[in-house]
Amino acid sequence: MPNEAGQIGFTPVTAGHYPLLLDWLHRPHVRDWWGEPETELGHIRAMVEGRDTTRPFIIELDGRPIGYIQYWFLADNKAPELIEASPWLAELPDDAVGVDLTIGEAGLLSRGIGSRAVSQMVRRLLEQGHATILIDPDIDNHRAVQAYRKAGFQPVPHLEGRTKGVLIMQYDKKNETNT
């Protein structure tokens, strides 16, 4: 499908967004790739309340909420128990940031909105001085992998096949296509 026209924006998540987020987290196309809805919402609450350093945002299309995006700091995710569960985390630079997103509205999938949203967030992160930007889709989420490739992400070669079902991808501007 053609790229969906419209302005992409980000609004920081507040407690007022919780019902909308919980609704999206229950939708089949989101449940396929995200965890238990109440658990995921609990993680987002921790972010909003400042107990987690991850930064959560609502993705808006022409001012209308259509999805969720967050960025997280790798250095804050290198606790011993996390490294034990995912040893490859130790091989990534501490100053890296990771991005996660989902389009909550199923009718807006495969229209280029995810690629545009992640590209816009990448630009924001680069402007903030972050040089290493990662994304880690489920290896079987072909739609997401394709969207992230379009946005300039490529698999990290030395980690392929070593990351238990996720594909670690790193942003490189020279790989970005028309988003």
Give a structural overview:
With about 180 residues, the protein is of the alpha+beta class. It contains six helices and seven strands, in the order E-H-H-H-E-E-H-E-H-E-H-E-E. It has helices at about 20-25, 30, 35-50, 80-85, 115-125, 140-150, and strands at about 10, 55-60, 65-75, 95-105, 135, 155, 170. Strands 1-2-3-4-5-7-6 form a seven-stranded mixed sheet. The longest helix has 15 residues, at about 115-125. The chain is globular and about 40 Å long. The model has no long low-confidence stretch (mean pLDDT about 90).
**Overall radius of gyration:** 16 Å
Number of strands: 7
Q: Describe the main β-sheet briefly.
A: 7 strands, mixed
Shape: globular
Report the span from N to C terminus. 13 Å
How many helices in DSSP terms?
A: 6
* Relative helix content: 25-40%
Strand fraction equals 15-25%
- Structural class call reads alpha+beta
H/E element order: EHHHEEHEHEHEE
Low-confidence runs: none
**Mean pLDDT rating:** 91
Strand order of the largest sheet: 1-2-3-4-5-7-6
